[in-house]
Amino acid sequence: MDERRQRAWQALELGPLWRLRGVPAAGAHAAPEDDEAPAAALPPQRFPAPGLEPGSPAVHDPLPRAAASMRPDPAPSPGPPHPEDAPGLSRPPAGAQVEVASSGWPELRAAVQSCRACSLSEGRNRTVFGVGPQEARWLVIGEGPGAEEDASGEPFVGQAGRLLDAMLAAIGLDRQRNVFIANVVKCRPPGNRNPLPEEIACCLPFLRRQVELLAPQFVLLLGRVAAHAMLGTEASVGSLRGQVHRLRVGALDVPAVVTWHPSYLLRRPEEKALAWADLCLAQEHFEAAGRAERGD
Ligand code: SF4
Description:
With 296 residues, the protein is α/β, with parallel strands linked by helices. It has helices at residues 3-12, 15-21, 66-69, 105-114, 147-152, 159-170, 197-214, 223-231, 237-240, 262-267, 272-294, and strands spanning 138-142, 179-183, 218-222, 244-249, 252-259. It has a single domain, classed as Uracil-DNA Glycosylase, subunit E (3-Layer(aba) Sandwich). The protein has eleven helices and five strands. The chain has a five-stranded mixed sheet with strand order 2-1-3-5-4. Strand 4 (244-249) and strand 5 form a beta hairpin. The site of iron/sulfur cluster (SF4) has 14 residues, from helix 7.
């Protein structure tokens, strides 16, 4: 057993699972997904125009899709959907979109802190912007803050956070050194429910700007909400995991792997072996890209 597997063995308590189950082929999933299953698409709905509190920076769309409609040749294939056009997601009205194409990190952080664009602001104690160095080459995206994150202002600080840290440490990642961690929504949904499509649509411009500013070389998407929001799909995590996707944000085209959310792994520890396989896939792809870049 190599050193990396030993670390994973300890971090994820995989020992018996490796021996009993093995790792299914890429894309396979072996268990019911309970809350990781595709959500039923909500009917289109209107919601109050999002807006920032007075003093917040002006915002606009970093992905002007109008440009696509001006291309001279109609594309034979529509290509992947814009993440904000994913089924079940509503897009904020034009002119009121909370987007920050010209903002830097400080402005973006201030915009999140003062944001009242959706009803999640009403019950929050603190916004949860994200954590990690701005030079990080890895980005991990989760769903939204829970109670402990809402109290601390930092993502993934509870039991699921400790598991995530252990998982990341097994592939050499540390939120203090080399990985940035953020969520799809920055305020805690009440009762730890999943964020609603309109809440995701309101908040997604912040995350998309974070992706642009960070320009990561690899993205790990934790769970259904993150995968659906960023990849524009309603497919199950089980069918999305085990493969490398392309995450397109602005001019960026970043490889991404989907895996189970740590909270799900706490409820379904028998799935940890699959999560470890996803982490290995991500790391191998990241390292291969590095070798190719260096000409090794
Ligand atoms: S969840 Fe996002 S969009 Fe909603 S109030 Fe919080 S920061 Fe604003």
